Amino acid sequence: MAKSDQVPVESPFAARTTAAEVVADIDLAGKTAIVTGGYSGLGFETVRALAGKGVKVVVPVRTPEKAEAALAEIAGDVVALPMDLSDIRTIARFANDVAGMLPKLDMLINNAGIMACPMQRVGPGWESQFGVNHMGHFALTQSMMGLLAAAEAPRVVSLSSTGHKLSSIRWDDIQNETSEYDKWQAYGQAKTANALFANALSRRLKVTDGLAFAVHPGGIFTPLQRHLPKEEMIAMGWLGEDGEPSELAKQGFKSPEQGASTSLWAATSPLLDGYAGVYCEDCNVSAPTDPDSPTARFFGVNDHATDDEAAERLWSVSEDLLNAA
Predict the structure, then answer these.
(1) How far does Cα 52 stand from its chain's mean position?
(2) Which of 51, 57, 244, 315 is most exposed, with minimal Cβ within 10 Å?
(3) Which of 39, 187, 275, 279 is the catalytic position?
(4) Is 39 annotated as catalytic?
(5) CB-based contacts of 249: which residues, under 8 Å, 6+ apart?
(6) DSSP character for 243?
(7) What tens digit of pLDDT does each residue of 119-146 get?
């Protein structure tokens, strides 16, 4: 992805746009979608907006009881099927179930994720943030390529984050096997991987007129923060000393309904035709990070997350890891 491809468009939407507003004037009847993490936080609002427009939505669920209770609130055609992103075997079973249910897949929204968690290993020994956020979605998307090819101009959305600025891919120690574990560096690497994944996937979808995009949803209080102690969020300025959202958070953070809007914009907007693989934020294509800007930590996309060569290298590494699992 050339740096010049990261050029904002004339979007009618912005940071505070809601998910429902993004899809209000788009005909989605007869479309199908998979939304990972679709029973809480941003994923829940994504599913609600899609189902409200007549989309048949399949939600992979790790805890069926919790998912059933949450999704019961949503009117529309929503189906929950068991799957765990940290377990490749369950992804294969999920893919088999979906193949018997859907003739095509119009939208795959890889929304689920974990953030800044203690050191854990999943699957064949992958560091958990890389394993769940990237490898689980990599395996899921690989298993859906046939259904995506059967759709007309399918789209895949990969949720990245401004956290990508914390780390590029650590090619010499992706799985933290020889270096000391830093939960934020690991999160940053995983979010960079999510962005590079969309970049590489866009080339592989081209033959079917498909598109893939990376999305930064914005700062939002969701279950994603479950591994962060209150003291750390106070120190980061997200919470006040009383444990309630700080003024900074009240001004800068989005609601879950607003946070889901960029994913849906990337999944549906005709303005993105021809922008394959770009990184998006605030319902627009992101500009490259301006290192001299006082907001460089929060806005824009760093070059290491849009690099074609790195994207192809990561794709190759990911295929090798998946084949060896």
Answers:
(1) 21
(2) 244
(3) 187
(4) no
(5) 219, 221, 237, 238, 239
(6) S
(7) 999 999 999 999 999 999 999 999 999 9
* Among candidate residues 198, 186, 107, the one with its CA nearest the CA of residue 159: 198
Domain presence at residue 242: no
Buried b (16+ CB within 10 A) or exposed e, 270-306: ebbeebbbbbbbbbbbbbbbeeeeeeeeebbbbeebb
Domain presence at residue 11: yes
What is the rounded CA–CA span in Å between residue 195 and residue 249? 25
Alpha carbon 26 to chain centroid distance? 22
Burial of 121 per CB tally in 10 Å (0-12, 13-18, 19+): middle
Tell whether 120 is covered by a domain: yes
* Residue 245, CA distances (Å) to 155, 215, 220, 249, 254 in order: 35, 24, 11, 6, 12
CATH assignment at residue 48: 3.40.50.720
CA angle 179, 182, 187 (to 5 degrees): 115
Measured between its terminal Cα atoms, the distance across the chain in Å is 29
Residue-averaged pLDDT of the chain:
91
